[in-house]
Amino acid sequence: xxxxxxxxxxxxxxxxxxxxxxxxxxxxxxxxxxxxxxxxxxxxxxxxxxxxxxxxxxxxxxxxxxxxxxxxxxxxxxxxxxxxxxxxxxxxxxxxxxxxxxxxxxxxxxxxxx
Length: 114
Known about the structure:
The chain is of the alpha+beta class and 114 residues long.
């Protein structure tokens, strides 16, 4: 089988060890009406480190059969909402610390006015 790679979204994770379900969607043009139709396939993906989470956008690649239904392995995590949320919280916390007046400056200004 030639090497294939798909980009998809993790839809189910945590029920099987080292396995996640990835949904790969694509658009197809209907022959009769000419309208776009969304088609999707679900693949079982081997995740060696159990690092995938729900709604991660991933790149998967075909490989020799790992089990009866597992024919793909995780190549790369493209985007993870959990890590993006953690980064946003860290940036917001750093910005709050930088803009908040320090307690020692408030005490020194109060002592200078006395």
